[in-house]
Amino acid sequence: MDSKHQRVKLNDGHFMPVLGFGTYAPAEVPKDKALEATKLAIEAGFRHVDCAHIYNNEEQVGLAIRSKIADGTVKREDIFYTSKLWSNSHRPELVRPALERSLKNLQLDYVDLYLIHFPVSLKEDIGIITWKKSPKHNS
């Protein structure tokens, strides 16, 4: 993959790779797989990495990025890192702490793009169960 030619110029003059590596995985996938897969993606030429606090794998994704920087595969400025604000942190006073928590988990100094993950706000820990398996379907 020639990532230098597969990018778009943003209105601020920066470039964003058009093809990104998404790091979401279901809960049953071991977290170390995010580390392994992200390293392989960077080795394969991916320069846009997409993650989010709600994925519960920021530590592993950050470690993968830092290890590929340490071994000389990439520099930090070569990676376009996208993160997302979860729906329980939309209030203005919660945005910066949410971003700082992600940066701490990642052990990175900055993200390149910070999106609102889902444009509907949720209260934190309100105890609502959205879906529950019916007892008659336990098998």
From TrEMBL:
Record carries keyword Oxidoreductase: yes
Signal sequence bounds: none
Coiled coil segments of this chain: none
Keywords: NADP, Oxidoreductase
InterPro entries: AKR (IPR020471), Aldo/ket_reductase_CS (IPR018170), NAD(P)_OxRdtase_dom_sf (IPR036812), NADP_OxRdtase_dom (IPR023210)
Gene Ontology molecular function: oxidoreductase activity
Domain called NADP-dependent oxidoreductase: residue spans: 19-120
KW NADP (keyword) present: yes
SUPFAM superfamilies from the UniProt entry: NAD(P)-linked oxidoreductase (SSF51430)
Protein family per UniProt: Belongs to the aldo/keto reductase family.
Subunit structure: Monomer.
Listed name of the protein: NADP-dependent oxidoreductase domain-containing protein
Organism: Colobus angolensis palliatus (Peters' Angolan colobus)
